[in-house]
Write a sequence for this structure.
């Protein structure tokens, strides 16, 4: 990791398996990404998730917006929103 990058942890729930690579599902991944990267950048450039897919995003256990900036040490979890009741 250089000064221009930060380290985050990413976990993607299995409900998103139809939208991304299977080797990224249900495992905790340590990633080095560029400093000041947004969640949207991570989703598009690293995860490969289409903008049409709207996952539920948690950063450090709290809901987050796609445009939020990531900080070193953040723990990001992606879930597929479910309908029902």
């Amino acid at each position: 990791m250089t000064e221009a990058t930060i380290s985050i942890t990413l976990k993607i729930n299995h409900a998103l398996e139809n939208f991304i690579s299977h080797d990224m599902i249900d495992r905790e991944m340590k990633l080095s990404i560029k400093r000041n990267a947004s969640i949207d950048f991570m989703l598009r450039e690293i995860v490969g998730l289409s903008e049409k897919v709207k996952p539920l995003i948690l950063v450090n256990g709290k809901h987050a917006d796609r445009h939020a900036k990531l900080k070193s040490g953040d723990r990001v979890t992606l879930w597929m929103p479910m309908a029902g009741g």
